[in-house]
Amino acid sequence: MINGKDILSEALDLKSFESIGHKLIELLRDDMKLSQESIDHKTIDWLNPDEQLSLWKEDFLSKEPAEAIDLFKKIMDKSIKLSRKGYIGHQVAPVYPISVLSSALSAYLNNGMAVYEMGMSGNAMEKIIITDLANRFGLPNSATGFVTSGGSLGNLTALLAARAIKLNRYPDLVYNKLAVMVSEEAHYSIERAMIVMGLPLDNIIKIKSDSDFRINIDNLETGILTAEDKGLQIFCVIGCACSTSTGAYDDLKALGDFCKLHDLWFHVDAAHGGPAIYSDRYKNLLIGIEQADSVIMDFHKMMHVPSLSTAVIFRTAAHHALTFYQDAKYLWDDQSSEEWYNSGKQTFECTKPMSIIHIYTALRIYGEMFYEQHINKLYGLATDFAKSIKEKQNFDLLCTPQSNIVCFRFNNGSDNLNDLNKIILRELTLDGRFYLVSTKAGNDFYLRTSIMNPRTELNDLELLLLKINEIADKK
Ligand SMILES: *Cc1c(COP(=O)(O)O)cnc(C)c1O
Q1: What is the rounded distance in angstroms from the CA atom of residue 293 to the CA atom of residue 314?
Q2: Which of 387, 403, 429, 462 is the most buried (most CB within 10 A)?
Q3: What is the pTM of this model?
Q4: Cα separation, 467 vs 434, whole angstroms
């Protein structure tokens, strides 16, 4: 007790829990309403990092305890709003309302997942969702896997397994001569994984992409020769489905055939583009994924659940059993088995969020058609947007989108297009209605949009192009 106040009882008080809870739901509902209404509500209310820091310092040092709902509101006001129609930036998803609610449930349950008792329903749900996903991808019945926190960790996990298998089969291989082969468009988490594995970045054999930013299949054989010249042994070939920068899907069938021919581990990084498997219209982009030895796919990107939640799938159970085998006597009785229900045996994580609850509830409540419609809407909108950009003067489209990622730039023929487009991006962020990002193609600076929000419509994107013209006119 401090000053006669029983704070513990206050923190456990159910009346106040209910009252704050109702207010929070109302706050979120009202904000989602704004998001649905019009493009004019700001996505981002830009504040520079130093101002942001002082604001929160002042808040934290305040002598008065915060009212919960005021604090929640303040946090919301100072954060980017992913639900706005103008949010077309990174691949982090605006979640559907049902996931807001399943988040409250998972926070309350806080099941740690590592051992069966600490995640009884969660571990079973993981098993079911992973098996279902492996079936959709056309992997054999032996396929198995788990959920981990993020695609970066997923890629590292898969590469560790690939390396363990290679070293198990060829124990004489020199450890730091092991290499991977991947498109130059691959996500930087592959480089991170190599660093974590203690392998030189020089051991990444990068294959040039074609004009559509897909790995150039004709250069694969040369890649092997390059590796041999450097005295390297490739242990894994990685396909992008799709690439982060431009959303291009590599030809997985050709990559799979190549790996079979050369007896190489085939990993597919489907962090962003794997969910196309739910769409009859787009699933052909993933043809060849059935040949993969390992696949990762983020639920928190194109399946729009809260971050982080990533599927890691292996072609056969034996493949990843080697990766994480270790003693942890206080956690598991039987050190030799590979029980699916003790998920801590299979992931980096010990305590792990019960993130599976979000994808399980979304699928269970709305069914697989939900994701078919969702993918069709977002990929379809990107196609329409790209068409509109192509038809306009003063705009260059970088490439025809294969997914929901569209890259373009303003081009009025001026000498310094890079600086002009940088200024445009900056002005758009300050305006706050639209949030987009950038990418580079060679030395050229491009605006990059990921059409992530099912609330966004083509006319919102037309307004973006008008706004860009307007900004450029003033320069
Ligand atoms: C986003 C992304 C990753 C990394 O996933 P995180 O969940 O952000 O760690 C890996 N690969 C690709 C292709 C991606 O788009």
Answers
A1: 6
A2: 403
A3: 0.95
A4: 10
